Structure to design on (213 residues):
């Protein structure tokens, strides 16, 4: 069975939700404490959401400087699928795996609600089972999710209605095998507990399909 690391930093709180989503589609997820993470051991990596290091300095800034990220850099070079959700996206941007920056929302404030998101890039390991332009429903929960580009970038997800002032309503960015998004696909996988439906389920099924080749 394929092994998927769910990377956990101090302040990460979405790890068990990710683990549940992985298990739901038949993938072997493993929560890995950041100090224990080593390159070459896993088939894919997910950086879960939360507030790593209490969002000190900037969201994701301190986690991006850890040895775990240097190990992750080696895995990215191996071209394994890497996903960053919310704070995980912020970490990937701070570490330079994805271009641009994630700034405080405009208008300022923490946003927590379900929202419609369109899938733009369907060529990633996490999106290839979606249809181009497919609109799904996922929750967001962030205070620093306004995407600011630093140059050309590949938009992976787009908000149908921009909630935070992101450039071109960008909800997610891709770079080959690396994907970051602010919405939470791990919270939209089970009709019994996800009030907004299962718009995130195809993301995890896409990963499983990609790994199986």
């Amino acid at each position: 069975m394929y092994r998927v690391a769910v990377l956990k930093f101090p302040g990460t709180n979405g790890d068990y939700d990710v683990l549940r989503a992985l298990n739901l589609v038949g993938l072997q997820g493993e929560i890995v404490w950041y100090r224990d993470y080593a390159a070459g051991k896993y088939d894919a990596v997910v950086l879960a959401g939360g507030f790593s290091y209490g969002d000190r300095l900037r969201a994701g800034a301190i986690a991006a400087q850890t040895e775990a990220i240097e190990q992750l850099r080696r895995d990215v070079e191996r071209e394994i699928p890497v996903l960053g959700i919310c704070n995980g996206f912020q970490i990937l941007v701070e570490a330079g795996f994805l271009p641009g920056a994630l700034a405080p929302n405009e208008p300022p404030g923490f946003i927590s609600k379900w929202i419609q998101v369109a899938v733009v890039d369907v060529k990633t390991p996490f999106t290839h089972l979606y249809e181009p332009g497919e609109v799904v429903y996922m929750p967001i929960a962030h205070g620093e999710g306004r995407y600011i580009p630093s140059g050309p970038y590949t938009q992976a997800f787009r908000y149908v209605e921009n909630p935070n002032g992101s450039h071109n309503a960008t909800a997610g960015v891709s770079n080959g095998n690396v994907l970051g998004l602010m919405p939470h696909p791990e919270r939209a996988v089970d009709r019994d507990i996800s009030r907004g439906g299962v718009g995130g389920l195809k993301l995890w099924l896409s990963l499983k399909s990609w790994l199986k080749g």
User: Anything to note?
Assistant: Residues 3-212 form a domain with the Rossmann fold fold (CATH 3.40.50.880).
